[in-house]
Amino acid sequence: MSKSALGRRHRQAREEILTMSVSVYAGIVGVKEVTVYSWESGRTTVPHDVLATLASRYGISLTWLLTGVGEPTDRPVVLRGARRSDRKRSIRIPMLSLGVSAGSPTVAEDTVDREIDLAEMLLEHPDSTYFIRVVGDSMTGAGIADGDMLIVDCALQPKAGQIVIAKVYGELTVKRYLMVDGAPYLRAENKKHKDIPVTPDMDFAIVGVVRSCIKQL
Predict the structure, then answer these.
(1) Element housing 149 (H / E)
(2) 61, 128, 138, 167: which is the annotated catalytic residue?
(3) Are 190 and 34 in contact (CB under 8 A)?
(4) How far is it, in rounded angstroms, from Cα 52 to Cα 48?
């Protein structure tokens, strides 16, 4: 993902979806007009907190903003046509009170402990959360393998020690975010891959914090 491509989609969202002028939009997100022009021209990167605001406040798809894939106003992990009030109860799965054994448990009425709402359990900020599939093996030491699906929250401010999705020179990567001698650092969890020190002159931004990893067995 390049800064210019993100800038074009950001401009499309502002003009065609929000129908806002640069001056009005700049006032809403709390920046100067020249900053908006800089984002949309691709000179600088749209910050992740602004992208999260577009998703949470206006329903603009983070996946579309970041990759261009899908529809601009598709809500992540929400079925089309679902009302806002229905989102947190869209998927409920019985949780058994049994322990797992080598045999097959029989689901009887008295074995169901309670129902689990997947959105409530996995998503702190549903409107600012998206899925991203892992490509590569740089994070296998953290239990994240090629082909896994990550749940990424863009509304969270990243903290040292967390696993994040970062944009480095236009490419998305998943790494552990650390502070080394007061400077940010991206650490791979696989000795075959190099860590990435973040320097002031880099095209770098943290897109979101990884909250969960979904695996196919």
Answers:
(1) strand 149-153
(2) 138
(3) no
(4) 6
Decide which of 170 and 138 is more confident: 138
Does the active-site annotation cover 3? no
pTM score? 0.53
Choosing from 3, 128, 167, 175, the catalytic residue is: 175
Q: What's the pLDDT tens digit per position in 23-49?
A: 888 888 888 888 888 888 888 889 888
Measured at the CA of 112, the angle between CA 106 and CA 114, to 5 degrees, comes to 155
Residue 66 DSSP SS3: helix
* Known active-site residue 61: no
Q: Which residues pair with 176 in a beta bridge?
A: 163, 187
What lies within 8 Å, CB to CB, of 164 at 6+ separation is 158, 174, 175, 176, 177, 186, 206, 207, 208, 209, 210
Exposure pattern of 120-153 as b/e (b: 16+ CB <10 Å)?
A: eebbeebbbbbebebeeebbbebebeeebebbbb
Residue with tokens 């990424």: 152
Is 60 exceeded by the pLDDT of residue 84? no
